[in-house]
């Protein structure tokens, strides 16, 4: 096979993008240790490697022109590697724990999505923005960021510019929330990391951003429960796409998918494979923890080592993915959004975050106790 015939995933620039991402992730871990241990004198660095990966990635991505082939490799790390990492996070929770977190998240997710879709769409039309752009910003903020935007665009017949504006809004405000919300969550829910994780999972836009915020919270405040709850909450939000995207098509006056097998196939394609993988990993953890000899072949100690290995692998995958997110976060996109879409994106982020925060502050503790009891 000649070099020209090589598939894109095996091209030298693609591998260069993967290597660059791995280099940023490696450097981020050392930078976090240097800042926290060497400079600040802590025994364990309070500076998150995830945060350093995003920051270093953004500096590199916004100062060094990267060829298209290199960007393709980086995007692979920001998508596929991220999803593998989230799938592996399932090993941290038994099915019972994952189910309890999902039950805790569900009412808050439903209310936040309902408020976000209704108020953001209404205000956007009042500001003179197109129904399609308003709808894209609403679903991107309320459900799951760029994935929801891309899945909704053909349903409401949005054009390429509207999709670009909506994705830029989600990226800008999602990144801001990813850095700020862990601090706010700890300030408000320091005694209950589960509620902090619930806040992160219901209010931050993208799956990658939620994972990054949860990892930062875990590293900075030694609270792995926050990451677990944030992850499950975000996966619950992702699953609502199956119901809500056809509904958005109706609400915003465009053609909904026609009935029959093709429509069912499209709806099923909205269920991300990493959610299924997360559930399977949780099931694996449940089966492994069930008996005195996991799967009849492991000693308890060996099974414990395997679980720790998979947990560490998940965190490494997420560090690589978040470094890629930093490398692909182009600050120049802020200038292209325009004042009105930018204002609507800010309003959307504040509404969804504010509603989530209010509901969790009032009802979160009582509902968590009820589920645990």
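Sequence proposed for the structure above (373 residues):
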């Amino acid at each position: 096979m000649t070099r020209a015939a090589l598939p894109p995933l095996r091209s030298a620039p693609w591998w260069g993008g993967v290597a660059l991402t791995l280099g940023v992730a490696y450097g981020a871990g050392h930078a976090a240790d240097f800042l926290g241990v060497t400079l600040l004198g802590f025994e364990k660095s309070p500076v998150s490697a995830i945060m350093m990966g995003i920051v270093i990635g953004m500096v590199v991505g916004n100062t060094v022109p990267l060829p298209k082939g290199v960007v393709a490799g980086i995007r692979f790390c920001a998508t596929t590697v991220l999803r593998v990492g989230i799938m592996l996070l399932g090993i941290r929770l038994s099915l019972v724990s994952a189910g309890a977190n999902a039950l805790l998240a569900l009412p808050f997710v439903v209310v936040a999505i309902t408020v976000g879709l209704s108020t953001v769409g209404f205000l956007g039309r009042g500001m003179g923005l197109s129904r399609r752009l308003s709808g894209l910003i609403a679903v991107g903020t309320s459900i799951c960021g760029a994935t929801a935007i891309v899945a909704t665009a053909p349903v409401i017949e949005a054009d390429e510019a509207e999709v670009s504006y909506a994705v830029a809004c989600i990226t800008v405000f999602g990144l801001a929330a990813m850095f700020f919300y862990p601090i706010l969550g700890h300030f408000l829910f320091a005694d209950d990391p589960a509620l902090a994780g619930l806040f992160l999972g219901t209010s931050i836009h993208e799956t990658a951003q939620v994972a990054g915020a949860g990892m930062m919270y875990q590293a900075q405040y030694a609270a792995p429960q926050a990451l677990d709850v944030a992850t499950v909450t975000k996966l619950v939000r992702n699953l609502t796409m199956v119901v809500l995207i056809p509904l958005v098509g109706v609400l915003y006056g465009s053609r909904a998918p026609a009935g029959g097998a093709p429509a069912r196939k499209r709806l099923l394609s909205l269920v991300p494979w990493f959610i299924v993988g997360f559930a399977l990993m949780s099931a694996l953890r449940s089966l492994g923890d069930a008996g005195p000899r996991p799967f009849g072949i492991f000693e308890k100690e060996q099974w414990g080592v395997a679980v720790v290995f998979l947990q560490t692998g998940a965190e490494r995958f997420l560090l690589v993915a978040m470094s890629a997110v930093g490398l692909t976060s182009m600050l120049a996109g802020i200038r292209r959004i325009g004042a009105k879409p930018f204002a609507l994106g800010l309003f959307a982020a504040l509404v969804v975050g504010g509603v989530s925060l209010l509901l969790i502050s009032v009802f979160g503790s009582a509902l968590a106790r009820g589920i645990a009891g």
